[in-house]
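Weekly modeling sync, notes
Attendees: AB, CL, MP (scribe)

Item 1: holo prediction request
CL wants a bound-state model with iron/sulfur cluster before deciding which constructs to order. AB pointed out that an apo prediction alone won't tell us much about the pocket. Agreed to run with the ligand included and paste results into these notes for async review.

Input as submitted:
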Amino acid sequence: MGKRITVPFGSQHVALPEPVRFVFQTENEKIVDVEVDVGYVHRGIEKACATKFKYMQVGYVVARVCGLCAISHTLGYVTALERLMGVEVPKRALYLRLLVSELDRIHSHLLAMGHTAEVAGYENLFMQTFRHRELVMEMLELLTGNRVQFDFACPGGVNRDLTPEVEKVLREKLKVLEEKALWLRDVYENDFSLTLRWKGTGVVTEEMAKEMNVVGPPARAAGLKTDVRAEFDYLPFKEVGYRMVVLKGGSIYERNLVRALEVLNSIEMCWNILDGLPEGDIKVPVKGLPEGEMFVRIEAPRGELFYYIRGSKKLILDRVRIRVPTFANIPVMKELFVGMDYADVPATVISFDPCLSCTAR
Amino acid sequence: MDFRKFRKRSPWILHYNTGSCNGCDIEILACLAPKYDVERFGILNRGNPKQSDILLVTGPVTKRAKERLLRLYFEMPEPKVVVAVGACACSGGVFRHMYNVENGVDKVIPVDVYVPGCAARPEAIIDGIVRALEILKEKGKEVELPHWCSAQVKPPVNRVKLLDRCLEELHGRR
Ligand code: SF4
């Protein structure tokens, strides 16, 4: 038995894009205990939403909870608000929201896959993945006017329409993207050294996933059939060809493969949306003051996102509560680490694709 | 030999997130990736403060990140430049006056270049970095202190003592 050694990991670390802190107690190479600290980026957004900002502004503030899934947060908030106030959103706006939310999912998944490759030491694949990700960023920029913080959805509809010229370019880019995504799936599925490194590392079993309430791609990689897109009706997913991707195994390899397959499914959905986009308005005015309470669930790229709002006929809401996917995934990470080799830690953390600015808000 | 000439050929960057929404962070990543590729200026991203010349800071500086930011700043050797990336690093942005933020990086450490935008575009970030390189070339070896710090420094500087002193003052201000 070796001596116990304490290894801090974070808050600023080479392999970490975000400030989270793990303190590992290790014996030789094995980890025997771990503490997690996620609070470095707490800003107080929930409080500010209920004191400083009017209900029409909150959508833009919650978008800044997280830049990777900006549309998911806005979407969660505006859907809740619309349901609370009984606003009927035009069909075209719904489909445009769906388009942006799927493009956002693609870019977020590609980012996560690229990162995992980088942490495994596969710099080349990281660069390739990021190169193809730029295509999505360009598409998003054309469609919404900004690369990261889109501010696309607003209460009552969307802020910008899809013009025929943009649609033409989108189609061209989507075609290129589809080819590249197929190639990427092939690499992530069949590359020899990656499978050696990833298969069987950081395994989440189905029971574990069920017990610890894992959400998003990690859960689906473990064989758990959970996806809010199929369970909660907030956008017309069924009409555009949504399929749930579920794999068995639950290691890093499957998590990335789920992401790669979901990217392909999202591209397919984007094609369907572009082909069958309904005509009509993109926005209806929202009048009145919110009263009562409402919650919605949204499938963000990382899993289930939960929004709860309560208003009492005032311009400023009483409460905005956000529960984010990474928060739900942290317990299972902690459980996984105990008994694992220290060398596998970075890859495992990144394969869950943690978003700390979501978690701490 | 005059090292100034060579200094701007291979600056290494250190990136720290002090509570941003990740929007600007992924744009910095995009800068490092093929399409924008800042490596053509000799720039590498190494997460080690002791080897870095440029500190890229994103986020409005939360109360807990404050101390870490100051530590990182003092661990970097002179000359160094600080680039604040994004609206919220410049002034607080949307997060301004929320209860747990400091309203911008320049409230804690001296900033040389401000890159605006929410999220800052990769082109803007590259422009900021290139300007930072110009500043880096001009800078000497003297230690720069935050504006709120009243310590006097005379070379040779004892960094550990200086950091302690600054931290004390920082906590005293609360
Ligand atoms: S400037 Fe905007 S995009 Fe950048 S970190 Fe701040 S809130 Fe996010």
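Recorded for review: The mean pLDDT of chain A is 80.
Action items: CL to compare against the apo run; MP to circulate these notes.
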